[in-house]
Structure formats: C-alpha cells, structure tokens
Amino acid sequence: MSNPQETWNRLRAGADGLHAPNDTDMDRPVAAVLRCADAKMAGAGVFGQPAGSLVDLSSWGLTVDTSVLAGVDFAVETAEVPLIVVLGHDDCAAIRAAVKAWNHAELPDGAMRAAVEGVLMSLVGRGASVESHAHVAAAHAVETGLSLLKRSPALTHRVDNGTCGIVCATYDGAVLRVHATMGDVRDASTALVECV
C-alpha cells in the first residue's frame, strides 16, 4: 500500500499526462474519487488510471449522503486506499442551480433541492463569492472534503494516523486545480490553506 503523498503524486502525474501506470500486479484500488454525477469524465479518465484502479463514487452536486459515506468507509476500511479525492467540476448543473438560487432566490423542487442547499451552505461556510461558477465549485469541493472528514470516523482515524489523505480539486476538462489538502498529502499548486 502506498502512502497518501505517493498516491497523489501518481494521480497528479496521470492527470498531467506524464506517465501511464503499470498495474499488472494491482490487486486493489489505489484511491477513491468522489465526483459529481453529471461530470463528463470519470475519475480514472481524469487521472489517467486504468479501469478498476479507483473506487469511483458519485453523487449529484457532491452530496454527502449515506451511500457516499458507505462508499468512503468501504474505501478506507476494506480497500485501505491511502487517498480520497473530492473532484468537483466547473460546468456543474448543481453549481449553476445554486448560483441561480443565490442570485434569484429560486430553489429547485424535490431531491435536487437538498443538493443545491448543500452547495449554498458551502458558499456560506467558505465565505465564497458567486462571481464565477469556478469559485463556487472550488468552495464546494473543499467543504465536501471537510464534511467527509467530519462525518466518517473511519476516514478521520486514518487521516489522523497519517495513512490516508484528502485532496479537494476541480477539473474543467483540461486543467486540474487543487484547492485544499487534508492529512499527509501536499500539492505544490494548492491555492488555499492546507487543512491538517
């Protein structure tokens, strides 16, 4: 099993197109990626990884519900992945709906409302601006990472003992941007303060 930093270096290199991993001896996933359900590309494609090398979790608007938490717990307890990546994207329908709700006080009905409310709470929690969808997506990715850390005792334990880390990032179809890291993982391009 790799450590969080080695795993992030591998995923980052794959996202940058620097190498194709050799996984002929891979017997378990190397990381877990929580991505938005309406993202155009799965985590393996973003990070240049072979099929089956990632625990691929998705929910609309990065909503952290029981299913997502169960997937995270599986990833850290059973698959023993050393890294969780929260991957938002700039062209997100939930982000657009949240910006519309913020600007015009128009919330969608049904289950989508809870996801949009989650994005709005991320805006408040981060003190983020709604000047661009990219800013909102970044704030929501960071708040989602913090939410996973607060709501999954298994993840919290592994981050505390240094065996797992969290990277909060966004992807616009061409560029991967890291907004925060938690635990024993760093990224040279991290724009926001690292959370430990």
UniProtKB/TrEMBL annotation:
One Pfam family this sequence matches: Pro_CA
Top-level taxonomic group: Bacteria
Comment on bound cofactor: Binds 1 zinc ion per subunit.
One Gene Ontology term of the molecular function aspect: zinc ion binding
InterPro entries per the UniProt record, alphabetical: Carbonic_anhydrase, Carbonic_anhydrase_sf
The keyword Metal-binding is assigned to this record: yes
Cofactor or coenzyme needed: Zn(2+)
Residues binding Zn(2+): 36, 38, 89, 92
Entry-linked Gene3D superfamilies: Carbonic anhydrase
Keywords, alphabetical: Metal-binding, Zinc
Purpose: Catalyzes the reversible hydration of carbon dioxide to form bicarbonate.
UniProt similarity note: Belongs to the beta-class carbonic anhydrase family.
Name under which the protein is recorded: Carbonic anhydrase
The species this protein was found in: Mycolicibacterium poriferae
